[in-house]
Design brief:
This is Phage holin family protein. The protein has about 130 residues and is mainly α. The chain has six helices and two strands; from the N terminus they run H-E-H-H-E-H-H-H. A two-stranded antiparallel sheet has the order 1-2.
Amino acid sequence: MNFILHLLLDAAVIFGLAYLMPQIDVKNFGTALLIAFLLAVLNYFVGWIIRVPLDLVTFFLLSGLVRLVVTALMLKLIDKFMDSFTIAGFWPALVIAVAVAVAGSLIDRSAPSEEMVKSGYVVMEHAKIWLAA
């Protein structure tokens, strides 16, 4: 469920930035959803191959920055393979990477943890809201 939520939010961020920035062109929301899926798959299977040597070079001090740059590189790679998605330059790809990272961290921060669900805290909060209404 969290993966689907991440995909939908990433697609919305990509599509929204394409609307705001003239350097980014996305044909439709379906294309943005495909871009978000490909970005997730590439970051999972290929991104770590690029991230590990760069993290070793920076002694893991810049791992967040390395992750953003690798995500931007993955976006440029997706741009090369898809005709319905265009990014003019590296900086717009980096802007998308930052926006996707911020949106993902907001989702991860707002999602209840396993401990909260197991303890019943989340259910109790919903019950408090229902009782208050």
